[in-house]
Amino acid sequence: MPSRTLRLPAASSRAFTTPLYRSSIKTSFSSPSTLLARSFSALSIAPRTRPLMPSQACSSVTSITSITPTQRLQQPFSTSAALQGYRRRMDTYSPSRRVQKRRHGYLARLKTKAGRNILKRRQLKGKRFLSW
Fold first, then answer.
1. Tens digit of pLDDT for each residue in 64-109?
2. What is the dihedral of CA 17, 19, 24, 27, to 10 degrees?
3. 3-class SS of residue 5
4. Residue 19 domain flag
5. Whole domain around residue 116: which residue ranges?
6. Tally of domains in the chain
7. Does 85 reside within a domain?
8. In this structure, are residues 41 and 63 in contact, taking their beta carbons and an 8 Å threshold?
9. Looking at the domain assignment, is residue 111 inside a domain?
């Protein structure tokens, strides 16, 4: 019965025309063993972990259930609410007079130095309405 082994194509000895890449290509594919290592390196994306023994599985379950509230706050970013799902953002244009007065109204102008300068300028010009 023929053996089922993976046969790799021989490393290409074709030289590229760009001199910058010539040395790096020849060194990286110089032997089939490096070619094999590079082609399977992308397959090992998942982190390697040891399999749990039955006694270890029971202890890990009890440790998961006995998490304190302070440990819950120290969760990694990958489990945070930012990656949980889509949340509607209120950045689309939906005009309202309440928001307009909050941002550009008389009281909002009084709070900042730049706003007070705007009110002063409009008063000097003789504007009837200083702001919203």
1. 556 666 666 676 666 666 677 777 777 788 899 999 999 999 999 9
2. 80
3. coil
4. no
5. 104-132
6. 1
7. no
8. no
9. yes
